[in-house]
Every structure is written in structure tokens, then in C-alpha cells.
Amino acid sequence: MSVAASEVEQTPPDPTGKKSGFQLPGWAEKGVIPGVVLLIAALIPFIPAIGDKANLMQQMAVALAYVVMALGLNIIVGFAGLLDLGYVAFFAFGAFAVGWFASGHFAYVNDEKGIHFLVGGNALNLPGIHFNFLLVLVIAIVLTTIAGMIIGLPTLRLRGDYIAIVTLAFGEIIGRLAVNLDGTTILGGTPITAGRQGISPVDRIDLPFLDPFTVLDKKPWYWFALFLVVVVLFVNFRLRDSRMGRAWVALREDEIAAVAMGVPAVKTKLMAYASGAAFGGISGAFLASLLNTVNADQFQFSFSILVLAMVILGGLGSIWGVVIGAIVLSIINNYLIPDVINGVPGDLGLDFDMTQITFAVYGFLLLLMMILRPQGLLPERRHKMELADHAETTDDNLYTARA
Amino acid sequence: MRSKYMAATGCLVAALAMGVAACGDEDEPTTGGGGGTEEPAAEGKNLTIYSSLPLQGASRVQTEALVNGAKLALEQAGGKAGNHTIKYESLDDSTAQAGSWTPEAESANALKAAQDEATAVYLGAFNSGASKVSIPILSEAGVPQISPANTYVGLTTNDPGSEPGEPDKYYPTGDRTYTRIVPKDTIQAAALVTLMKQDGCTKVAMTNDKEVYGAGLARVIELSAKEQGLELTSNDAIDKNASNYRSLAQKAKAAGADCFVYSGITANNAVQQFKDFAAALGADAGLYGPDGVAETGFVSEKDGGIPAALNKQVKVTVATLSPDQYPPEGQEFFTQFTEKYGVDNPDPYAIYGYEAMKLAIDAIERSGTGEKADIKKALFETKDRASVLGTYSIDENGDTTLTDYGAYGVENGELKFDQTIKAQAQG
Amino acid sequence: MEAASIPAGPPASQRIKQLIGTYGLTAVLLIMPVWFAITDLSDDGNLVRLGENLVAGLSNGAIWALVAIGYTLVYGIVELINFAHGEIFMIGSFISASLIGTLGLTVDSSFLPVFFGLVVALVVAMVGAGTLNVLIERVAYRPLRSAPKLAPLITAVGMSFILQNVGLLWKGGNQQGVPDLLDAQHTLVTIFGVTIENADVLSVAVTIPLLIVMTTFINRSRLGKAMRATAQDPEAARLMGINVDTTISMTFLIGGMLAGAAGLIYAVYQTTIWFFQGFTGGLIAFTAAVMGGIGNLRGAVLGGLIIGFIQQMSDNRIGSQWTPAIVFAYLVLIMVFKPSGLLGEQTRDAG
């Protein structure tokens, strides 16, 4: 919460003072409200009805990990306007950072004795490469940043939806590699990935000065995820309001004008990919450790679409909107559909198997939410102003907001 | 049939339009396994059996059969195990978004079972990869687990085909809680190879569906073929989303293959592969499949399976007995299943689901107390259990001791028991 | 190419880039066939294997081309990646398969009933799929016309989930066999050792006329002109008296009809259908549309055929588990050398 407080001092109050819709004044947006929300979020596990349910705590931790991921994608799509349909690639790299550097996967290294670095407890006795989780996070960030830049390079000359298909292609290629490289062995005979078998188990998070996290108590995992969210939110706000953030928006709004004004297009775009990717990597590494597996089945196109849906549903470019979008979709997927909707016919005494229409329920909810709130749950102010302007000047029957 | 589907579709639209409307009116009467749970037991406990299976996407056909089989078994037992009242709750370890099992759903299910005081047994997982996620959680919580479908070697033993550190790395506390009722891959692989040799195959082209089950089985088929002296011309991992496999089949023909074996499940485009390989290899070529394709949806043309013309070329192996050798309650299961679900011949996965639930009820009953630790003990002490799968015990690794496989031919679009194959497990 | 013909000529560095662009692209496209031609010649002494790959690629690619046109048409006019389009194609297949069953056509049916049955199925599948596509536009896209550009993308995804579920309930979760009416894998003729099967002829014989009719329609007819005008500038088109709503509906109708036709061909050609075929098929067709230059009809056809060739060569020689990765790698390479696709035009957004 100190994070949020420092934000208040650095950011002057919103000069326009224009309150339109959900737009809050700067001090509220970045200080008081987030502080209160985060405080409540941090205290939730102390409610026994919630904190004692490990599956609930885990689902909340997963939801927070998705928040981190959605915030990352928001930088690429929301801020910089580069439609990325292959975000799953960064999830994969983050997860493999854990699979490679914090598990018994490479069992043959160092004469089957393993390599250990800053780890304690159980992991010390296991073969394979075991690095401290914080170090793995750094590795994940480095890996995904590089991957982000590599994926960004071919898209530099592309515009509009051509970027979408090239990122989609990369996402699919990475997914294929994750599945198929279980036949290619390195480091004394271990395959690069474990394909659909999955690398499992992987090391649990073991932070300095704290007890190692355990399998059955998910509260520490939740708090760690919350900590990640706070850090990522802070970075996100700083990035948005930085020179780079303004350059992203300028490129998004009008690339030619921005370049003419001296915005370095290449560097700006690559930075967007790199920082968005890093968030995906952090979240991917956390999820791998939380879920105790790195399985190629996870890295599918539908995952990219899920994260993209979180961003668009929440409100493209709007940080708080994206947070809400990620939480809403996580709840729908992991709680509302399996635990509530699927139980409805049973509660009504009917023998109707809801799981056979889960696809349609999910699709219908997406459709409904988008039609009810086309601009997202909590739209970004800049987008909103644009929309309003257009609506005044042109026929709203036409494709006004396309630019 | 079609009108029923149309009704379902219409109902779906209606449900979407008005929230969740009453769509089940015309369905069969309520059948759920939880039927007898309302009344409190005299002195026994109220226990819950959870199953965690992917109910979305490609595996749905098999998991639906599994759940139906399990429900029927509980119904046969009157919702009771000894004096304990049993409730059955079927959990989904897939999400609509992914269309397949996800680690978050599987581990959430395992955690749910782990923290529920009333949990007696956890049936699952369906995918070996998912079991790798749930075993450590359930082992730590001491919840007995019965998988109705996992065949991956490394979950229970360090036999050939497993990876370093397996299986101990899945049981961090050293507490073995995981059992399974289907034999590991090694046994079925040996059975398939024996069958192909018997039928006079000399060069066999193999494809696998690249999933844990299919790829794992293919790997041990390779080992087994080498051991028994059968030549495999290829082991191609297929892309299940490919529209056809004609080029692949041409390659096999060019390599001189006279038989074809597919290692995978029906939903990974098995029918198309059998058609394309049959067309390429000719009408005399033998076509073989494992229990992953032993189901109506594969063998019956009218249910969308292989064309009738291929019937005589196809053989599959299943870990079940010939129906006439079933014990009495198995016979009863057979007729009841047919009655209730309108299928002449229950798919093997219905039988696996049935037997998994049967074993769970049996173990709870033998435990007496209904405590998790006692149920687990009883489970591992299962000896010479007469079942629809044959007579088996559970060994100290949690594996079934079954080694017999049934070889089935296809006649008029139905699986027809042919012979029993005694397979020797290696290692 | 255009730039090269300007007399003054661009600076040398620019020209080298241009050359790399043109020849690099050609090299990328030819690398697989040429390499396999060489290996075939050295191994077998003839090109039969490559020839068979190409024939199979042509007939498979023709189906993707039909689906890709739907993507390209819709994208050209509303700039929306219509993720539900693949599912329309799937529904087309399902309608045809059901109709084939209802009409009682089997493997043993004689030529005339099969021919007329298929014509009926073709018409019904096209009308059904086209109508469905129009309805989807009404329900899922039209309410979002003034929303941010990416909002309809999510409704499209939602729609595609719903249609997949309809398919799942309709035909179940497994692939469904369709009666092999035409004896699809029967060898019709052999030319220079390359066998041509019934299925190949069917696919090409239905696709080519449809493509010609459609391109002529869009290039010549009044409605076609309206479509192109709307694609270029909806506001101006409206001022010129074009009914934008009707034009958009017609575009979805035509796209859906082609997807329906592709659905029938797919069902009869592959003889297997699946509720999930639309997802994969849609992804491939979308790739084809972009590869050819999205918004460009001929480009979509070219892209579809190229992907057909790549898929068959890769299946036959590299291994089918790598096929999707190779298709996508090709796409990335083509995008690097030609950022607007093979025959790309300048669309409003990409301009």
C-alpha cells in the first residue's frame, strides 16, 4: 500500500477535472480506492469460510495470476495498439523457466546429483536443476523479454491485423514446439520439453525468511500472487505515465504522425512487446509452481484468446478495467460455470447434464457482456473521449470508432 | 435420434434466451448416484466419492460413459457401502475455455476432495498428466485414489518407459494412495503385438495421437515389437486436427507395410486414419487398435464409425472379459446399462467407470470404519477380486495384477469377443 | 514491382531491399518443392511422389480457398476477423451430412441419385450456412458497430463457442463418418504415374466454377460494386446512396454460402466430419486469407492453395505433427518479405 501512496505524491491531480462515466480523479484512481481494495484483498484469507478452503484460495491465486497476465497483454494491445493473438507463448516461456530451472526435469545433469543454487530443504536432495524461485522469476523475465523482442521483430513492418496473424503464428509454433520437442534430448538424455506428459512435480516457492510454501495451504500462494499484482500494477502505472507510455499511445493513435514527431517506432514497439512479455513470464512461472506442472496442453491458442478477452472485456488500455476483466472471466470459468451453473438442474431436481452445454454457456456470457458493454466494463478515458467525440460528429450507424 | 438432438438444440437455444430454463422435462427419470443420500444412515457415515474427469471437449464421449458406469454401480449398491451412505459427486477437470483438462481445474478438484472431511475415495484422473497434478495433493492429504483410465507406467513403477525419479517424486510424503484398475501400457502393448504376430503381420505401420496415453502406449509397443521380433516401419505422431492422412498412408505403403496399428483414442481422428490406411494398404491388411478405440462411436458405421466394409479387417484389444464370463452382478450391469442408456454393448470406459466405483464401494465396506486411512489400507489389500475385468488384486504399487486382454473383432458394427490374449509384462 | 518501373529509380539500398523482397519471397515459396524435387529425383529417379503431393495439395487447398474467401470478404468490408466463420463451415458440413443421411444415400447408391442428392445438399448447405452467417452478423456484430474495433472479435469468439456446442450436441464428440458416396480414394486416372482420385476431381470441379462465379459477381454486379465501395469507404458509400446495412448482410450471406459449399465438399471429400473441424479449418483459412493479402479474393485462393501444398508435402515427408508449425513458419516468412501478403492491397487500416 505504500506503493500506492507514493504514487499519489508524484502524480498531480487530474488537470482537466473532467468526470466522465467511470473516470476517477487521479488521487482516487491511484491512491485511496486501490489501497482499500488491496487491503481487503489481503485480509480475505483471514475469513475462515474462505481462507480454510484451499481450492477457493487456489482459484483466487490463479485469478490474480491472470490479472498479471492480462495487465501484460494490455501493454501490448491496450497501450501500444498491437493486436497480439499469441500471448500464450510468453506464458509457455515463463512456465518452462520453472520446468527447466526449478524441477527434477534434467535429471542427468552433474552426474545425476543435480545443480542447486540458493535452495534449501527438500529440493537440495533432488536431482535436476533447482534454483531459488526469485532467481527463476528473473530467468523467466529474461527469457520472455527476449522472446517478446524476437516475436516483435517480424511484426515491425506490419500494420493492423497482419500483426495479429504473425503473433498468432508464433504462439502456435511455440505451442507445437512444447508438444513435439519431447523427442529431442539434451543434457545427457532428457527431452527438452515433456510434451503432454508434463514436467511434474516442480519446486514450490521457497522465499528467504519464510517457511516453504506447502501443497495443502494455499494462503501463502495467494498473498504472493497479490504481491505480484501490486508490483505489476505499480510498474504498469509508471509505464503508462512515462515517456514510453505516451509514445505507445501516440503510435497507437497515429503511427505516421508519431514517427514524424520523433517517436522511435522500432524501439517503442519492441519495448511494448518486451514489457508485456515479461509480465506474462512472471505469471507463467508463478502458475507453473502453483499448479505443480508444466504441460504442453496448457499452451494452446484458446489461452491467448482468454487473456485477450479479459483485456477487451475489461476495457482496452484501462488498467483497472483489465484487472476487473481478468477477475470476472476467471470467476466465470473456474467458479460460476462449474460450481454454480452446472448445479442448477440438480437443485431444481432435473436430470439434465449442464456440462454438455458448458461451451455454449461460456460463449453466450461472452456475447452478452460484450453487447451490454461494448466499450468494456471500465473503459479507458482516452478511448471513451474518442468514442464520445465521434458519436457527436458522425452518423453512429457507421463504423465510427474504427480508427 | 435426430429429433432428440434437435430437441436438445432447441432447448439449448431456449435456455440461452431465458437463463436456465427447465430443459430436462422429457429426459429419462432422475438417475443420479446420489439417489439414496437424503436419509441419514443408522450408524454409518455420510461419505462422498468424487470423480474428476474432463467433461468438455474431445474426451467427453469416454468420460460420459465412465460417469454413467459409475452411477450405475452406485445405484446397484443402493447408494450404500456397508452401513455408510455414499454420495457421488462428478467434478469436471476441464474448462469450456480450454476444451480439455487444465491443471488448475484438476488441482482445485483434488484440493476440494482433500479438505472435505466426508471424502472417501477420489476417482480419477482420466489423463495421466492430470494424475501427476492430483497425486501429490491427495497423497499429502491421505485420500485414496482410483484411476479408471491411466495407463502411464511411471505413475506407479520405475519400469521401462518411465522417467528418472518416478514414481517416488509424485509421493513426497512417501504415502502411496494411488491405485488403478486398468493395466499399465506394457501389458496392452504386449497383447497387441502378440495379436498382430498371430495374424501374420510382418511389417506394421504405427501412428500415435501424441497424447500421454497414445504416445506412451506407442513407445512400449516399439519395445515389445523389438522383443517379440515384429518389424515396425514407422511410428508417426499424427495431428488430430488434420483433415486426412492420405499422404501418411502412402508413405506407409511405400515402406511395404502390410498391417496398421493406431495407438490412441477415437476422438483423435481414428476413423479417418483407419479409412485412409485401409485404402492405401489394401483389403487384406490387418488394422489394429487399443482400448482407446473400443467403443461404438468407432466400430459402428451408423454411429459415425468406420465403414462396414472395414469391419472384418479391424481388431481391438480391451482389458475386459468376454461378456459371458462376467460375474452375476456384471451380467446385471450389462442388461441394466443397455436398458438405461440404450446401447447394446457398453463401451469399455463405461465398464471401467463401473468397476472403479465398484472397487471403491468394496474398499469402503471392507474398511469398516469409513476412515480414509482404513479405506486406503483396504484398497491396497484388494485380493482376487472377481469383476467384469476378470479376477485381479491390487499390488503394493497400486497396480492391478490383470494381464489378460480380450481381442475383439468387429461384426455388423459391434465389438465381438474373439479370444483372450495372455500378455507377459516385461520388467 | 511497381516501384522498380519508376524511371528515376529509388536509391541503391532501397533497390536491394526491393530485390530481396521479390526474390526472397520466390525463394521462400519454392524452397520446399524444389528441395523435394531434388531428393525425389535422386531417390526414385522421377517426380511421382512430388506430383502426388501437389495433386493432393491442390484438392485440399481448394477447400481452404473457399473458406478463406469468406474471411477475406468479411474482413474487407467490416475489418473484423470473423472467428465464427470456421464454425459456419463446420455447420455446412453437418447440414450436408445429415441431408445425405435423410436422402438415404449410401455407398451403394447409383450415380444419378448421388448426383442429384449432392446438388440438393449443396444448395441446402449453402443457403443454410449463408442464412446463419447473416443471422450472426445481426445478433453479434451489428450491435457493436460503433464499439471499439476489437469488441466484435470477442463476440465472434463467443459465437464460435456457441456453434461448437450446437455441433457437439448435434453429432456428438467423436468424428463422424460420412458415407463415401463418390468412392473418394478410387483412382480415376494416372498421369505420368501420378494418380488422380475421384475426390481430387470433385474438389476442383466444384471449387473452380464457384470461384469464377463469385469473383465475377463481385467484380461486375451492382451489389459487388456496392460491396467494394463500402469496403473502401463506408461513409462515402452511404452518401452515394448505397444501403450499407444491406450490403454488409449480403457480404455475410455470400461468405457463408461459400463456407457451406466448402462444408459439403469437405464432408464428401474427407468422409469424416467433426464439431471441432471449424476451429482448425477456420485458423488455416484465416492464415490463407492473410497470406494472400487480406481483403483480396485472388489472394485468398492463392493462399489456400499454397497452404494445401505445404500441408501435404509436410505430412508426407516431415511428419504430420510438425505440419501446423511449418504452415505458420511459412506465414511468418511471407509476412517478413511481403508485409501486406502475396497479393495484398492497401486496406483502410493497413494503408
From TrEMBL, chain A:
Pfam families: BPD_transp_2. The chain crosses the membrane at residues 32-51, 63-83, 89-110, 131-156, 221-239, 270-291, 303-332, 352-372. It is a multi-pass membrane protein. It comes from the Bacteria. GO terms for molecular function: branched-chain amino acid transmembrane transporter activity. GO terms for cellular component: plasma membrane. This is Branched-chain amino acid ABC transporter permease. Its main location: membrane. Residues 1-20 are annotated as: Disordered. It is found in: Cell membrane. It comes from Solirubrobacter phytolaccae. Signal peptide: none annotated. Keywords: Cell membrane, Membrane, Transmembrane, Transmembrane helix.
Automatic annotation (TrEMBL), chain C:
It comes from the Bacteria. It holds the Pfam family BPD_transp_2. GO terms for molecular function: L-isoleucine transmembrane transporter activity; L-leucine transmembrane transporter activity; L-phenylalanine transmembrane transporter activity; L-valine transmembrane transporter activity. Keywords: Amino-acid transport, Cell inner membrane, Cell membrane, Membrane, Transmembrane, Transmembrane helix, Transport. Belongs to the binding-protein-dependent transport system permease family. LivHM subfamily. The chain crosses the membrane at residues 20-38, 58-81, 88-107, 113-136, 148-170, 201-218, 248-269, 275-297, 318-337. It is a multi-pass membrane protein. InterPro entries: ABC_transp_permease, BCAA_transport_permease. It is found in: Cell membrane. The keyword Cell inner membrane applies. GO terms for biological process: D-alanine transmembrane transport; L-alanine transport; L-isoleucine import across plasma membrane. GO terms for cellular component: plasma membrane. This is Branched-chain amino acid ABC transporter permease.
